[in-house]
């Protein structure tokens, strides 16, 4: 008798937990718009880069400043396509590769590797550079982490694949 209750309890537990975790998905292209490409997601919120908004603001021997519009879409995992548009500004150092984002009146360093707390869940900076120059900034090679261990950057290759597919469609 106890065995039947235990099995029933396990069936109910797995019946509720598996579909919830397996059902989370985000559109690669917001609402099917190839111009709005998924750049990151976390806890139901997704960020989408507006490919047509990428602008090289300044290019010098020291580095490049690029702006890009990003849509923040809450509840994107539930099919929501309404979001808030904002412009992100990035600086890319040419000498010693380092990416920075303009936040609250100051440039903040974005490391190529690290925890999600250090690097974030949004790859719009890497994407903006790739859109502007058709080159990976941090991607394509390994970088040392805080312990000196070389690792691939947090930005996955699927990000570049989505951009390449969007470019093919938009051309």
Summarize the structure.
The protein has helices at residues 2-22, 116-119, 124-133, 157-170; strands at residues 36-42, 45-50, 55-59, 63-73, 84-93, 98-103, 106-110, 143-144, 150-151. With 171 residues, the chain is of the alpha+beta class.
Alpha-beta classification: alpha+beta
Q: Any low-confidence stretches, pLDDT <50, length ≥5?
A: 9-22
Largest sheet, strands/sense/barrel: 7 strands, antiparallel
Strands, total number? 9
Give the fraction of residues assigned to helices: 25-40%
Q: What does the average pLDDT come to?
A: 86
DSSP helix count? Answer: 4
From the spread of the alpha carbons, the general shape counts as globular
Return the string of H and E elements: HEEEEEEEHHEEH
Report strand %: 25-35%
Distance between the termini: 66 Å
Computed CA radius of gyration, to the nearest angstrom: 20 Å
Number of domains: 1
Can you give keywords for this protein?
single chain, 171 residues, alpha+beta, 7-stranded antiparallel β-sheet, two-stranded antiparallel sheet, 9 strands, globular
Can you describe this structure?
- 29% of the residues lie in helices and 32% in strands.
- By secondary structure, the protein is α+β, with helices and mostly antiparallel strands.
- The chain has one domain (26-170).
- The strands form two sheets. Strands 1, 2, 3, 4, 5, 6 and 7 form a seven-stranded antiparallel sheet that branches. A two-stranded antiparallel ribbon has the order 8-9.
- The termini are far apart.
């Amino acid at each position: 008798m106890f065995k039947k209750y235990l099995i029933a309890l396990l069936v109910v537990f797995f019946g509720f937990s598996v579909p919830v975790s397996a059902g989370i998905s985000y559109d690669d292209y917001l609402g099917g718009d190839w111009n709005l490409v998924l750049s990151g997601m976390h806890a139901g919120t997704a960020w989408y880069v507006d490919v047509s908004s990428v602008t090289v603001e300044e290019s010098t021997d020291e580095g490049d400043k690029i702006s890009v519009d990003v849509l923040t879409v809450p509840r994107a995992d539930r099919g929501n396509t309404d979001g808030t548009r904002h412009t992100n500004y990035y600086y890319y150092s040419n000498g010693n590769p380092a990416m920075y984002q303009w936040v609250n009146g100051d440039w903040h360093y974005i490391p190529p590797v690290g925890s999600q707390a250090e690097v974030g869940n949004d790859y719009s900076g890497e994407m903006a550079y790739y859109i502007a120059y058709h080159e990976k900034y941090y991607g394509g090679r390994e970088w040392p982490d805080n312990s000196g261990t070389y690792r691939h950057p947090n930005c996955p290759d699927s990000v570049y694949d989505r951009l390449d597919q969007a470019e093919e469609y938009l051309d």
